[in-house]
Every structure is written in C-alpha cells, then in structure tokens.
Amino acid sequence: MTDVDFDHHSPDYAENWRAINEDLRSTCPVAHSGAHGGLWVVSRYDDVAAVAHDDATFSSYQELPDGSRNGATIPASALRQVPIEMDPPEFFAYRRLLTPWFSPGAAKQWRPYLREVTTFCVDRVIETGKADLIGDIAAPVPAILTLKLLGLPVEDWRPFSDAVHAMIHTVPGTPGNEAAMTAMFTLIGQITETIARRRAEPADDLLSHLVRAEIDGRLLSDERILEMVTLVIFGGIDTTTNLIGSALEWLDRNPAERTRLRERPELIAPAGEEFLRYFSPVQVLARTATRDCEVGGQPIKAGERLLLSWASANFDEAVFDRPEEVVLDRFPNRHQSFGLGIHRCLGSNLARAEFAVVLEEVLRRLPDYAIDASGARHYPTIGIGNGWITLPATFTPAAPEGSEALA
Ligand code: HEM
C-alpha cells in the first residue's frame, strides 16, 4: 500500500482542496494517508454515500482500551458531541429528543426573529459605510440564533462565536487550538451553571427541554446534556457563518450574479444549495470500520479510520455537470454538504433559513458592498470547516431601520 500525501489540516489542503480532491477521485478514490495516525480518504460520491448509509459497518463513536476514542473528527475532539458521536440503537432516542426543535416548521417560526437579528446587525454598521461582513453579520446571526434556541444569553454571542471559529480553523494540538479550547471550557462552565438553573426553574427553550427529558424512564445526566448542547453550538455557529461568508465573498467577485440574485430573490434558495455544494462548509467527517470490509473495492480492516469527503463528493464529475462552475439555479443539486444517512444534519432547515434571511437583507441594504481583498483572511487551515476569518467591506452609508437592543 502506498500512502498519498493528504492532510485535511494542512495549509496546502486549505489552499488547494478542490485540486487535491480531484486528483484523489481520479487516481486513488479510496486513498490511505499516514496523517493523524492513519486514515482512508473516501472521495467519490457513491463511495461516500455507501459508507454514510452503512452505520452498522462504519461507526461514529468508539471508546478504545487505552482511554482514547474514535469520533466524528480526525483527530478526535476533546469534547464528545451527541448524537453525532453515537451509534444505533442508543443514537435514535437522543436524535428523537432534538428533532422537533429543528423541523421545517420550527425553522419557519424562527424567521421573524432572524430578520430582527439581521436588521439589528446591519443597523449597527450601516451609517458608517464599512463593516466586517463576518464579524458584524455572518458570525453574529447564526451565533445569536443558536444561543436563543438553547436558552443561553444572546449577548454572549461573541465569546461563543470566537471560541468555536478558532477551534475549527486551528490545527488540533497547536497553541492556537489549545487557547481556543481553554476559552471553550470557560463557556462550558457557564453552560453547566445554566443547566443547574434550568433544573430548578425550567423555561421555554431547548436546554429546559433536555433537563426534563427522559430516556428509558431516566433523566439525562448533566454530562450527556452538555454533549448535546456542545453539538448544537458547534453545528450551529461555525457552519452557517462559513456558508454565508463564502457566498458573500463569491458574489463580490461576480457582480453580475449578485445583481441577478438581488433582482430575482426566488433564486436565493437554489443559490444557497449551490454555495453549499461549491464551498462545502463542513468538508469532511469521520467513521471507524467495525469489521473487515471493502469500500470502492479497497479492503479496509476493522478499526481503521475513514474520512468521508463531502467536499470531494460534491465535485464528482459522475454526478454533477460542470462541477467547477457555480450555477446559481443548478437543478438537480444532490450535494452531500449536510451529510447522508441517520446522522444527516439536523440543523439544515435552520441553516437554510439563516442563509436566506441574511442574503436578502445584505442584498437589499448593502447592495453595493465591496470587499477589500487585501484585508480579507480565509481560514489558514480547513480541517473540518471551510470559511473566512474576516471580510472587510465598504458600501454606501444609509439610515438604520430602527432595531432595538437584542432580546
Ligand atoms: C451550512 C450549515 C451546516 C452544514 C454544512 C452542516 C453539516 C452537517 C453534516 C455534514 C452533518 C453530518 C454528520 C455526520 O454524518 O457525521 C451534520 C450533522 C449535524 N448538524 Fe449540521 N450543518 C450545518 C448547520 C447546522 C446547524 C445550524 C445546526 C444546529 C443549530 C446543526 C446541527 C447538526 C446536528 C445536531 C447534527 C448531528 C445529527 C446527528 O448525528 O443525528 N447543523 N451537519
């Protein structure tokens, strides 16, 4: 077996991920890399789908005899997240507890609040004629909605957002990543205190639902609730910011398409799907083989790690016509950006609502925004999340629309 030179956490991958994936698909679609203790990169659409749908053969969570674990990321995170890192049959009860909070109906009900939050964010910058499209708009909107949904204080959005973004775009084991972890652990301390308060005095939020919920007649432990809350925070905060940021940056470089989107708002929904495909905000996630098996004809041994590349599958020429092109109204668009199978993204309805509202508002209120490319900074490494740290922009100043402080 010859190893390929592949590391999703390397700066080279961040810069050249589309070319690297294309090369893998055409030369070695199930390729072994020595990175992070060894992993198989699965890069073709059908192979990724087959693994994601076979949760008996490919596990999302294993505890190992040496005390370490194999979870949904490579390398494993210090924080377990549930139910993304859990297998059937246990998995179903936890997923069921969350499902009603993320249904299409629930996402629809959040739209007026999303509009209010977006108006608030745009109001704070619109008179100045300049903004960081990430720090002022694309980061706060998803973070505020996520905290509101959980029942955590929305005014704390920035420390949550900063810690999650930093954890995603720094390489595990580096000082930057450890600093982000420390910040995250402080926030987790705050969440633990809120769990205790909600046990005493429940409110009408997801945290209160979880402290009252029972599985097999027993209340959930604080630890289990934290694992679920951590997933909603990581799932809710970085991913959608990355989608919105990548879309705004692309529309800056493609002004005719920006005009088309502004004039035909019915294109915003299909454009969201295309940006999901083209940028794959969550690029890869992992599984572990539970038995000796084959993927795409390649023998895999029990215990070996697999990296499912949604990002590569989304460019598979066998499925997508002209995959290198952004086609705002691409149809059909069976991208894998929300995953497939039992772990398919629970937050997809919310993510789509957030994307649509923010795009509508930015195109309506900052129609001539121009990004200062020299100040724009992409994530230096991608690892899991593909996004922007900062997108400084200028635009014609205008009047605020009168949003009050956040509630
Ligand atoms: C652009 C936005 C988003 C993208 C690209 C994305 C991507 C994904 C992917 C690829 C998975 C599959 C995991 C796997 O197969 O191992 C997933 C699962 C999940 N996502 Fe998202 N996500 C997004 C937004 C959100 C939001 C807004 C939330 C919540 C507020 C969320 C919560 C979750 C949860 C709870 C799961 C785990 C589901 C399970 O294991 O049953 N996601 N997401």
UniProtKB/TrEMBL annotation:
Belongs to the cytochrome P450 family. Keywords: Heme, Iron, Metal-binding, Monooxygenase, Oxidoreductase. The keyword Transferase does not apply. The keyword Acyltransferase does not apply. InterPro entries: Cyt_P450, Cyt_P450_B, Cyt_P450_CS, Cyt_P450_sf. This is Cytochrome P450. PROSITE patterns: CYTOCHROME_P450 (PS00086). GO terms for molecular function: heme binding; iron ion binding; monooxygenase activity; oxidoreductase activity, acting on paired donors, with incorporation or reduction of molecular oxygen. Pfam families: p450.
